[in-house]
Amino acid sequence: MSGAVPGCELCHGAGGALLWQNGLCRVVAVDEPGLPGFLRVVLARHVREMTDLPRADRERLMAIVFAVEAHVRKSLEPDKMNLASLGNLTPHVHWHVIPRWRDDRHFPAPVWAAARHEGTVPPERLAAAARMATSLPAALAAFAD
Question: Strand 17-21's sheet: what is its strand order?
Fold first, then answer.
C-alpha cells in the first residue's frame, strides 16, 4: 500500500478475510467467534481521522459503509446493527459493521466487553453469514472503480 505507515496493522494487512475492494477501501470479514457477519470497512490508505479525508472521499466511504450495513441487515435480519469507528489501538480509518442478536454472547453490551455468557451460534445464522459474504460483491457493484 502506498503511504503505508510502519507498525500500522491495517496498512500492512487486510484486517480480516478480504470480501471486496476498490481503490478507496476494502471490506473484510472479522474472525470474531460468536458474531457471524461482523465486517470491517477499511480505508485503502493510511489516514487517522475521517475529517482528514477530502469531503468526496468521506461521502463515498460512508455510502459504502451504509451499503454494507444494508446488505448485512437484509441478509441476516439481526435484532440490531452496530456501526463503530474507534481505532484507538489502530489509528487508521476503518468502520466496524456488526450485526447483533439478543442471544449473542455480549448482548446488550458492546462486542468489545467481556462476554456475558457462552453460547452457540445457530447453524442457520452461520450459513446465512456465509451466503451474505459471498453475495456482498454484487451488492457493492455500484462502487467499483
Answer: 17-21, 25-29, 39-43, 94-100, 80-84
**Domain range summary for the chain, segments of one domain joined by +:** 9-143
DSSP 90: S
Count Cβ atoms below 10 Å from residue 44 Cβ, excluding itself.
Answer: 18
Q: Extract the C-alpha cell encoding 70.
A: 444494508
Q: What one-letter code names the amino acid at 101? A: W
| Spacing of C-alpha 138 from chain mean position | 17
Q: Which CATH class is domain 9-143?
A: alpha beta
pLDDT tens-digit profile, the chain (145 residues): 457 888 889 999 899 999 999 999 999 999 988 999 999 999 999 999 999 999 999 999 999 999 999 999 999 999 999 999 987 788 899 999 999 999 999 999 999 898 898 888 999 999 999 999 999 999 999 999 8
> In whole angstroms, what is the distance from residue 132 CA to residue 106 CA?
22
